[in-house]
Protein backbone atom coordinates (compact mmCIF):
# COMPACT_ATOMS: atom_id res chain seq x y z
CA UNK A 1 0.00 0.00 0.00
CA UNK A 2 1.09 3.53 -0.63
CA UNK A 3 1.45 5.19 2.78
CA UNK A 4 0.01 8.69 2.43
CA UNK A 5 2.01 10.36 5.21
CA UNK A 6 5.41 9.57 3.69
CA UNK A 7 4.27 8.86 0.12
CA UNK A 8 6.22 5.61 0.01
CA UNK A 9 5.10 2.05 -0.57
CA UNK A 10 4.80 -0.06 2.58
CA UNK A 11 4.51 -3.84 2.72
CA UNK A 12 1.24 -5.17 4.16
CA UNK A 13 2.47 -8.78 4.07
CA UNK A 14 3.75 -11.44 1.75
CA UNK A 15 2.12 -14.76 0.96
CA UNK A 16 4.06 -17.89 0.16
CA UNK A 17 1.12 -20.30 0.24
CA UNK A 18 -1.83 -20.66 -2.11
CA UNK A 19 -1.27 -17.32 -3.79
CA UNK A 20 -4.35 -16.77 -5.88
CA UNK A 21 -6.09 -14.47 -8.37
CA UNK A 22 -3.44 -14.61 -11.10
CA UNK A 23 -5.98 -16.58 -13.13
CA UNK A 24 -8.59 -13.86 -13.05
CA UNK A 25 -6.29 -10.79 -13.05
CA UNK A 26 -5.66 -10.98 -16.78
CA UNK A 27 -9.40 -10.81 -17.46
CA UNK A 28 -9.78 -7.68 -15.34
CA UNK A 29 -7.13 -5.88 -17.30
CA UNK A 30 -8.90 -6.82 -20.58
CA UNK A 31 -12.21 -5.66 -19.10
CA UNK A 32 -10.82 -2.29 -17.94
CA UNK A 33 -9.20 -1.73 -21.36
CA UNK A 34 -12.53 -2.49 -23.00
CA UNK A 35 -14.33 0.05 -20.81
CA UNK A 36 -11.78 2.77 -21.64
CA UNK A 37 -12.16 2.01 -25.36
CA UNK A 38 -15.94 2.04 -25.12
CA UNK A 39 -15.80 5.45 -23.45
CA UNK A 40 -13.63 6.74 -26.30
CA UNK A 41 -10.43 7.08 -24.22
CA UNK A 42 -8.28 5.24 -26.78
CA UNK A 43 -5.24 7.39 -25.91
CA UNK A 44 -5.38 6.27 -22.28
CA UNK A 45 -5.30 2.51 -22.85
CA UNK A 46 -1.50 2.53 -23.01
CA UNK A 47 -1.45 3.63 -19.36
CA UNK A 48 -2.81 0.26 -18.26
CA UNK A 49 0.28 -1.95 -17.84
CA UNK A 50 0.52 -5.44 -19.32
CA UNK A 51 -0.10 -8.19 -16.82
CA UNK A 52 0.93 -11.78 -17.49
CA UNK A 53 0.73 -13.07 -13.93
CA UNK A 54 -0.98 -16.32 -14.92
CA UNK A 55 1.64 -17.25 -17.52
CA UNK A 56 4.35 -16.17 -15.09
CA UNK A 57 3.16 -18.32 -12.20
CA UNK A 58 2.38 -21.39 -14.27
CA UNK A 59 5.73 -21.15 -16.08
CA UNK A 60 7.28 -21.34 -12.60
CA UNK A 61 5.42 -24.61 -11.96
CA UNK A 62 6.59 -25.91 -15.33
CA UNK A 63 10.20 -24.98 -14.60
CA UNK A 64 9.97 -26.94 -11.34
CA UNK A 65 8.49 -29.87 -13.28
CA UNK A 66 11.44 -29.72 -15.70
CA UNK A 67 13.98 -29.54 -12.87
CA UNK A 68 12.48 -32.71 -11.38
CA UNK A 69 13.43 -34.37 -14.64
CA UNK A 70 10.77 -37.05 -15.14
CA UNK A 71 8.63 -36.35 -18.23
CA UNK A 72 5.97 -38.83 -17.08
CA UNK A 73 5.53 -37.21 -13.64
CA UNK A 74 2.48 -35.06 -12.88
CA UNK A 75 1.88 -31.74 -11.16
CA UNK A 76 -0.36 -32.32 -8.14
CA UNK A 77 -2.68 -29.50 -7.09
CA UNK A 78 -3.84 -29.82 -3.48
CA UNK A 79 -7.36 -28.43 -3.32
CA UNK A 80 -10.03 -27.90 -0.65
CA UNK A 81 -13.03 -30.22 -0.27
CA UNK A 82 -15.17 -27.42 -1.70
CA UNK A 83 -13.38 -24.85 -3.81
CA UNK A 84 -14.96 -21.40 -4.02
CA UNK A 85 -12.11 -20.03 -6.10
CA UNK A 86 -12.50 -22.71 -8.77
CA UNK A 87 -12.31 -20.36 -11.77
CA UNK A 88 -8.96 -18.98 -10.68
CA UNK A 89 -7.60 -22.49 -10.05
CA UNK A 90 -8.88 -23.90 -13.33
CA UNK A 91 -7.26 -21.10 -15.33
CA UNK A 92 -3.92 -22.24 -13.88
CA UNK A 93 -4.60 -25.78 -15.12
CA UNK A 94 -5.63 -24.56 -18.58
CA UNK A 95 -2.54 -22.35 -18.80
CA UNK A 96 -0.28 -25.26 -17.84
CA UNK A 97 -1.80 -27.23 -20.74
CA UNK A 98 -1.47 -24.32 -23.11
CA UNK A 99 2.21 -23.86 -22.27
CA UNK A 100 3.04 -27.57 -22.44
CA UNK A 101 0.31 -29.95 -23.54
CA UNK A 102 2.35 -32.99 -22.41
CA UNK A 103 2.26 -32.02 -18.76
CA UNK A 104 -0.56 -33.52 -16.77
CA UNK A 105 -1.95 -31.94 -13.64
CA UNK A 106 -4.22 -33.67 -11.14
CA UNK A 107 -6.41 -32.23 -8.39
CA UNK A 108 -6.58 -33.99 -5.02
CA UNK A 109 -7.54 -33.13 -1.46
CA UNK A 110 -5.25 -33.90 1.47
CA UNK A 111 -7.74 -36.61 2.44
CA UNK A 112 -7.27 -38.17 -1.05
CA UNK A 113 -3.50 -38.11 -0.54
CA UNK A 114 -3.87 -39.80 2.84
CA UNK A 115 -5.90 -42.57 1.16
CA UNK A 116 -4.07 -42.87 -2.16
CA UNK A 117 -0.53 -41.54 -1.64
CA UNK A 118 2.71 -43.30 -0.69
CA UNK A 119 6.47 -42.98 -1.14
CA UNK A 120 8.44 -45.41 -3.31
CA UNK A 121 11.93 -46.70 -2.51
CA UNK A 122 13.46 -43.45 -3.85
CA UNK A 123 11.18 -41.34 -1.66
CA UNK A 124 9.20 -40.21 -4.68
CA UNK A 125 5.58 -39.28 -4.06
CA UNK A 126 3.26 -41.77 -5.79
CA UNK A 127 -0.44 -41.06 -6.22
CA UNK A 128 -2.62 -43.47 -8.22
CA UNK A 129 0.59 -45.25 -9.37
CA UNK A 130 1.95 -42.04 -10.93
CA UNK A 131 5.04 -40.11 -9.81
CA UNK A 132 4.36 -36.55 -8.61
CA UNK A 133 7.08 -34.05 -9.52
CA UNK A 134 5.54 -30.82 -8.18
CA UNK A 135 2.98 -30.27 -5.42
CA UNK A 136 1.15 -26.97 -5.73
CA UNK A 137 -0.83 -26.15 -2.58
CA UNK A 138 -4.12 -24.33 -3.07
CA UNK A 139 -5.26 -25.61 0.31
CA UNK A 140 -3.78 -26.48 3.75
CA UNK A 141 -3.38 -22.89 5.01
CA UNK A 142 -6.34 -22.73 7.44
CA UNK A 143 -7.14 -25.15 10.30
CA UNK A 144 -10.43 -26.31 8.73
CA UNK A 145 -8.48 -27.51 5.69
CA UNK A 146 -6.52 -29.92 7.92
CA UNK A 147 -9.45 -31.34 9.92
CA UNK A 148 -7.81 -34.49 11.33
CA UNK A 149 -4.54 -36.33 11.83
CA UNK A 150 -5.06 -38.00 8.43
CA UNK A 151 -4.60 -34.67 6.62
CA UNK A 152 -1.57 -33.82 8.80
CA UNK A 153 -0.11 -37.22 7.87
CA UNK A 154 -0.73 -36.43 4.18
CA UNK A 155 1.03 -33.06 4.59
CA UNK A 156 3.99 -34.84 6.23
CA UNK A 157 4.09 -37.50 3.49
CA UNK A 158 4.28 -34.77 0.83
CA UNK A 159 6.96 -32.91 2.78
CA UNK A 160 9.12 -36.01 3.17
CA UNK A 161 8.90 -36.80 -0.55
CA UNK A 162 11.30 -35.78 -3.32
CA UNK A 163 8.55 -33.77 -5.02
CA UNK A 164 9.18 -30.03 -5.37
CA UNK A 165 6.69 -28.31 -3.09
CA UNK A 166 5.07 -24.96 -3.72
CA UNK A 167 5.66 -24.09 -0.94
CA UNK A 168 8.01 -26.30 1.06
CA UNK A 169 7.40 -26.22 4.82
CA UNK A 170 10.27 -23.72 5.21
CA UNK A 171 8.69 -21.29 2.75
CA UNK A 172 5.26 -21.91 4.25
CA UNK A 173 6.62 -20.85 7.64
CA UNK A 174 8.49 -17.90 6.12
CA UNK A 175 5.09 -16.56 5.07
CA UNK A 176 3.77 -16.40 8.62
CA UNK A 177 3.15 -13.04 10.22
CA UNK A 178 5.57 -13.97 13.02
CA UNK A 179 8.47 -14.44 10.62
CA UNK A 180 7.56 -11.21 8.81
CA UNK A 181 7.74 -9.43 12.19
CA UNK A 182 11.00 -11.16 13.19
CA UNK A 183 12.63 -10.03 9.92
CA UNK A 184 12.17 -6.39 10.90
CA UNK A 185 14.19 -6.80 14.13
CA UNK A 186 17.61 -5.11 14.14
CA UNK A 187 20.33 -7.21 12.51
CA UNK A 188 18.08 -9.99 11.21
CA UNK A 189 17.79 -8.91 7.57
CA UNK A 190 21.58 -8.65 7.49
CA UNK A 191 21.75 -12.42 8.03
CA UNK A 192 20.10 -12.98 4.66
CA UNK A 193 21.24 -10.01 2.54
CA UNK A 194 24.75 -8.62 2.28
CA UNK A 195 24.46 -5.62 -0.04
CA UNK A 196 23.83 -2.49 2.10
CA UNK A 197 21.80 -0.85 -0.69
CA UNK A 198 19.47 -3.86 -0.90
CA UNK A 199 19.10 -4.02 2.87
CA UNK A 200 18.16 -0.32 2.98
CA UNK A 201 15.67 -0.76 0.12
CA UNK A 202 13.97 -3.70 1.85
CA UNK A 203 13.90 -1.89 5.20
CA UNK A 204 12.22 1.09 3.61
CA UNK A 205 9.10 -0.95 2.83
CA UNK A 206 8.78 -2.29 6.38
CA UNK A 207 6.29 -0.64 8.64
CA UNK A 208 6.44 -1.03 12.44
CA UNK A 209 5.92 -4.70 13.37
CA UNK A 210 6.06 -5.77 17.02
CA UNK A 211 6.07 -9.10 18.84
CA UNK A 212 4.07 -9.89 21.96
CA UNK A 213 6.50 -12.14 23.78
CA UNK A 214 6.50 -12.24 27.58
CA UNK A 215 9.40 -9.80 27.93
CA UNK A 216 10.03 -6.07 28.24
CA UNK A 217 9.53 -5.32 24.57
CA UNK A 218 6.33 -7.40 24.48
CA UNK A 219 5.00 -5.39 27.43
CA UNK A 220 5.92 -2.17 25.65
CA UNK A 221 4.01 -3.36 22.57
CA UNK A 222 0.91 -3.92 24.71
CA UNK A 223 1.19 -0.46 26.23
CA UNK A 224 1.54 1.11 22.75
CA UNK A 225 -1.59 -0.67 21.54
CA UNK A 226 -3.60 0.28 24.62
CA UNK A 227 -2.55 3.94 24.36
CA UNK A 228 -3.29 4.33 20.66
CA UNK A 229 -5.29 1.37 19.26
CA UNK A 230 -6.35 3.17 16.05
CA UNK A 231 -2.72 3.31 14.98
CA UNK A 232 -2.41 -0.48 14.77
CA UNK A 233 -3.64 -3.78 13.33
CA UNK A 234 -3.45 -6.88 15.52
CA UNK A 235 -2.70 -10.06 13.54
CA UNK A 236 -2.80 -13.76 14.41
CA UNK A 237 -0.91 -16.49 12.52
CA UNK A 238 -3.71 -16.94 10.04
CA UNK A 239 -4.36 -16.63 6.31
CA UNK A 240 -7.40 -16.15 4.14
CA UNK A 241 -8.59 -12.76 5.44
CA UNK A 242 -11.05 -11.79 8.14
CA UNK A 243 -8.82 -12.70 11.11
CA UNK A 244 -7.17 -9.36 11.97
CA UNK A 245 -8.34 -6.91 14.63
CA UNK A 246 -8.61 -3.18 13.86
CA UNK A 247 -9.34 0.15 15.57
CA UNK A 248 -10.86 0.31 19.06
CA UNK A 249 -11.22 -3.47 19.08
CA UNK A 250 -7.41 -3.68 19.27
CA UNK A 251 -7.64 -2.21 22.78
CA UNK A 252 -10.42 -4.51 23.96
CA UNK A 253 -8.72 -7.54 22.48
CA UNK A 254 -5.35 -6.63 23.94
CA UNK A 255 -6.84 -6.34 27.43
CA UNK A 256 -8.20 -9.87 27.08
CA UNK A 257 -5.01 -11.22 25.55
CA UNK A 258 -2.29 -9.60 27.63
CA UNK A 259 -2.12 -12.13 30.48
CA UNK A 260 -2.79 -15.22 28.36
CA UNK A 261 -0.15 -17.48 26.83
CA UNK A 262 -1.84 -16.97 23.48
CA UNK A 263 -0.56 -13.42 23.18
CA UNK A 264 2.77 -14.63 21.72
CA UNK A 265 0.83 -16.01 18.73
CA UNK A 266 -0.14 -12.46 17.68
CA UNK A 267 1.80 -9.56 16.25
CA UNK A 268 1.04 -5.86 16.25
CA UNK A 269 1.49 -3.87 13.05
CA UNK A 270 1.32 -0.14 12.38
CA UNK A 271 -1.65 0.73 10.25
CA UNK A 272 -0.89 1.97 6.74
CA UNK A 273 -3.09 4.79 5.40
CA UNK A 274 -3.25 4.71 1.60
CA UNK A 275 -4.44 7.72 -0.41
CA UNK A 276 -8.14 7.88 -1.24
CA UNK A 277 -9.56 7.91 -4.77
CA UNK A 278 -13.13 7.63 -5.99
CA UNK A 279 -14.59 4.84 -8.09
CA UNK A 280 -17.22 2.16 -8.57
CA UNK A 281 -17.13 -1.45 -7.48
CA UNK A 282 -19.15 -3.72 -9.75
CA UNK A 283 -20.40 -6.89 -8.07
CA UNK A 284 -22.38 -9.84 -9.32
CA UNK A 285 -25.89 -9.88 -7.88
CA UNK A 286 -25.76 -6.30 -6.58
CA UNK A 287 -29.10 -4.50 -6.53
CA UNK A 288 -29.32 -1.15 -8.33
CA UNK A 289 -26.53 0.85 -9.94
CA UNK A 290 -23.07 0.87 -8.34
CA UNK A 291 -22.48 3.90 -6.11
CA UNK A 292 -19.55 6.29 -6.49
CA UNK A 293 -17.48 5.64 -3.34
CA UNK A 294 -14.18 6.59 -1.72
CA UNK A 295 -11.66 3.83 -2.36
CA UNK A 296 -8.19 2.69 -1.41
CA UNK A 297 -6.01 0.30 -3.41
CA UNK A 298 -3.30 -2.22 -2.66
CA UNK A 299 -0.84 -3.62 -5.15
CA UNK A 300 0.30 -7.24 -5.07
CA UNK A 301 3.41 -8.42 -6.86
CA UNK A 302 3.59 -12.06 -7.94
CA UNK A 303 6.95 -13.81 -7.91
CA UNK A 304 8.48 -17.20 -8.60
CA UNK A 305 11.32 -18.58 -6.52
CA UNK A 306 12.81 -22.06 -6.96
CA UNK A 307 15.76 -23.34 -4.98
CA UNK A 308 17.08 -25.80 -2.47
CA UNK A 309 18.93 -25.33 0.82
CA UNK A 310 22.09 -24.36 -1.04
CA UNK A 311 21.13 -22.22 -3.98
CA UNK A 312 18.36 -20.23 -5.59
CA UNK A 313 17.84 -21.31 -9.21
CA UNK A 314 15.00 -18.99 -10.20
CA UNK A 315 13.89 -15.73 -8.60
CA UNK A 316 11.82 -13.32 -10.63
CA UNK A 317 8.82 -11.04 -10.58
CA UNK A 318 6.05 -12.28 -12.88
CA UNK A 319 3.07 -9.97 -12.65
CA UNK A 320 0.82 -7.91 -10.45
CA UNK A 321 -2.62 -7.63 -8.95
CA UNK A 322 -4.40 -4.50 -7.80
CA UNK A 323 -7.19 -4.78 -5.26
CA UNK A 324 -9.45 -1.85 -4.51
CA UNK A 325 -11.90 -1.60 -1.61
CA UNK A 326 -14.05 1.04 0.06
CA UNK A 327 -11.88 3.27 2.24
CA UNK A 328 -14.11 2.44 5.21
CA UNK A 329 -13.48 -1.33 4.93
CA UNK A 330 -10.60 -2.76 6.94
CA UNK A 331 -9.85 -5.78 4.79
CA UNK A 332 -9.53 -6.10 1.04
CA UNK A 333 -10.05 -9.82 0.40
CA UNK A 334 -11.77 -10.41 -2.94
CA UNK A 335 -13.02 -13.94 -2.25
CA UNK A 336 -14.08 -12.76 1.24
CA UNK A 337 -16.34 -10.19 -0.47
CA UNK A 338 -14.61 -6.93 0.53
CA UNK A 339 -12.31 -5.82 -2.25
CA UNK A 340 -12.55 -5.96 -6.02
CA UNK A 341 -9.90 -6.69 -8.63
CA UNK A 342 -8.68 -3.59 -10.40
CA UNK A 343 -6.06 -2.38 -12.89
CA UNK A 344 -3.30 0.13 -12.12
CA UNK A 345 -3.41 3.32 -14.20
CA UNK A 346 0.12 4.65 -14.70
CA UNK A 347 0.76 8.38 -14.58
CA UNK A 348 3.93 10.38 -15.08
CA UNK A 349 4.64 12.28 -11.87
CA UNK A 350 7.54 14.34 -13.25
N1 LIG B 1 -0.90 -2.67 8.52
C1 LIG B 1 -2.00 -2.56 7.77
N2 LIG B 1 -2.48 -1.34 7.42
C2 LIG B 1 -3.59 -1.21 6.66
N3 LIG B 1 -4.32 -2.26 6.21
C3 LIG B 1 -3.91 -3.49 6.53
C4 LIG B 1 -2.72 -3.72 7.33
N4 LIG B 1 -2.56 -5.04 7.48
C5 LIG B 1 -3.58 -5.63 6.82
N5 LIG B 1 -4.39 -4.72 6.24
C6 LIG B 1 -5.61 -4.98 5.40
O1 LIG B 1 -6.14 -6.25 5.74
C7 LIG B 1 -6.01 -7.16 4.66
C8 LIG B 1 -5.70 -8.54 5.20
O2 LIG B 1 -4.51 -8.49 5.94
P1 LIG B 1 -3.38 -9.58 5.79
O3 LIG B 1 -2.93 -9.55 4.39
O4 LIG B 1 -2.39 -9.37 6.84
O5 LIG B 1 -4.24 -10.91 6.14
P2 LIG B 1 -4.32 -12.34 5.43
O6 LIG B 1 -5.36 -13.08 6.19
O7 LIG B 1 -2.96 -12.90 5.35
O8 LIG B 1 -4.87 -11.98 3.96
P3 LIG B 1 -4.71 -12.83 2.59
O9 LIG B 1 -5.66 -13.97 2.71
O10 LIG B 1 -5.13 -11.83 1.53
O11 LIG B 1 -3.29 -13.27 2.46
C9 LIG B 1 -4.93 -6.58 3.76
O12 LIG B 1 -5.06 -7.02 2.44
C10 LIG B 1 -5.19 -5.08 3.93
O13 LIG B 1 -6.29 -4.66 3.15
MG1 LIG C 1 -1.79 -13.48 3.76
Give start-end ranges of low-pLDDT stretches: none
Q: Overall 3D geometry?
A: globular
What's the CATH class label of the domain at 175-274? Alpha Beta
Any idea of the CATH topology of the domain at 175-274?
Dna Ligase, domain 1
Q: SS-based structural class?
A: alpha+beta
What letter string, H or E per element, gives the SSE order? EEHHEHEHEEEHEHHHEHEEHEEEEE
Supply database-style keywords.
350 residues; alpha+beta; Dna Ligase, domain 1; six-stranded mixed β-sheet; four-stranded antiparallel β-sheet; 10 helices; 31% helix; globular; binds adenosine-5'-triphosphate; binds magnesium ion; GSH-S_sub-bd_sf
Describe it:
- It is globular and about 60 Å long.
- Strand 5 and strand 6 form a beta hairpin.
- With 350 residues, the protein is of the alpha+beta class.
- The two termini are 21 Å apart.
- The model has no long low-confidence stretch (mean pLDDT 95).
- The protein has a domain at 175-274: Dna Ligase, domain 1, CATH 3.30.1490.50.
- The strands form four sheets. Strands 3, 4, 5, 6, 7 and 8 form a six-stranded mixed beta sheet that branches.
- The protein is 31% helix and 23% strand.
- The chain is built from ten helices and 16 strands.
- The structure holds adenosine-5'-triphosphate and magnesium ion.
- Magnesium ion binds next to loops.
- Its cofactor is Mg(2+).
- InterPro entries: Glutathione_synthase, Glutathione_synthase_a-hlx, Glutathione_synthase_C_euk, GSH-S_sub-bd_sf, GSH_synth_subst-bd, PreATP-grasp_dom_sf.
- ATP binds at residues 177, 235-244, 246, 269-272, 298, 325, 331.
- Pfam families: GSH_synth_ATP (PF03917), GSH_synthase (PF03199).
Amino acid sequence: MLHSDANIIKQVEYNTMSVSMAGVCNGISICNRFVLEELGHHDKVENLPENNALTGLTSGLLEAWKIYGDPTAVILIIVEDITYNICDQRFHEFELKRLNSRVKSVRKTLTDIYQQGCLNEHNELIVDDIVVSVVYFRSAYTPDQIPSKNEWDARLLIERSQAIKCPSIQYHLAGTKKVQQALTKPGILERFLSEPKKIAAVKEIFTGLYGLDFDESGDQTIQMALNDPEKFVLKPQREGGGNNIYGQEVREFMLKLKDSKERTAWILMERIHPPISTGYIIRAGAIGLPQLSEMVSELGIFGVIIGDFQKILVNRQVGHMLRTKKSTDNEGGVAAGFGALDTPYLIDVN
